[in-house]
Amino acid sequence: MRKKLACGFAALSIFLVLSVACTPTMAATYAPGVPVGAVANYSFGQTNLNIGSLKTEVTGVSGAVVTFTKTEYYANGTQANSHSGLAENVSSQQGFAYMYYIAANLAIGDPLYSGSVLYKINGTLTNYNIAGGTRTVNYMNVTVMSGSIHIVAYWDKPTGLMVKFSYHQTGPGAAWWANFTLTSTSLWGTGAGGIPTLYLIGGGAAVAVVVAAWLLLRRRK
User: Fold this and answer.
1) Per-residue pLDDT, 96
2) Which helix (H) or strand (E) holds 17?
3) pTM, full prediction
4) Which of 33, 90, 48, 95 is nearest to 70 (CA)?
5) Backbone phi, then psi, for 142, in 5-degree steps?
6) Fewer beta carbons within 10 angstroms: which end of the chain, N or C?
7) SS3 for 61?
8) Are 13 and 35 in contact (CB under 8 A)?
């Protein structure tokens, strides 16, 4: 099962590395926006794979690195696989095969990670309805390999959490697709395994308490 999940994203992982050139001077700050405990639940579909949904949970944030677990479920709801110790560095291409997390508050034109030439934030949408909330999201729409690979991805701007991801590859013997859509999260509303975001406002102070929280894949050992 792990090999099936990894092989489809192998080409994209190569492109992510090749898209890094000499690092330009940029104003973007590459820092995670998700807290430890952040849970996200996704509907999922992929060519020739009977996985219907998956869940991620942030287990650690250190500098630019987000460590998380990922649990996959068959279309009938039973657990298929669970992976722990996965990591994405939001300031480099390391671990960006999935793109579950990027830096928070990137602006239009910012590289997706430091040094990226090809992968950039193409636009920002406000009032975007996803997973029971209305959010501001950044999106990327990119075509690579002479048009044979098309990637469209959306991330929640304040947190950098992936909310939608679509990967389509065409070509003789290479047709392949994968789609992720966020269905619930502990970062807003109530997600499976999560608690609603709590806002306590008074005395001129606001306290926000959040408990509990990519084609493309980080190759697992």
Assistant:
1) 57
2) helix 10-18
3) 0.75
4) 95
5) -140, 145
6) C
7) strand
8) no
Q: How far apart are CA 154 and CA 189, in angstroms?
A: 19
Higher pLDDT, 1 or 56: 56
pLDDT at 167 > cutoff 70: yes
- Residue 174 pLDDT greater than 90, yes or no: no
Please give the C-alpha separations between residue 141 and each of 144, 147, 151, in angstroms, as whole numbers.
Answer: 10, 12, 6
Residue 18 neighbours by CB under 8 Å, 6+ apart: none
- Cα 74-34-212 angle, rounded to 5 deg: 60
Cα(165)–Cα(156) distance, integer angstroms: 12
CB 102 within 8 A of CB 160: yes
Sort 168 into a burial class: Cβ within 10 Å, 0-12 / 13-18 / 19+.
Answer: middle
- DSSP code of residue 108: T
The H or E element containing residue 67 is strand 65-74
User: Domain 2-209 carries which CATH code?
Assistant: 2.40.360
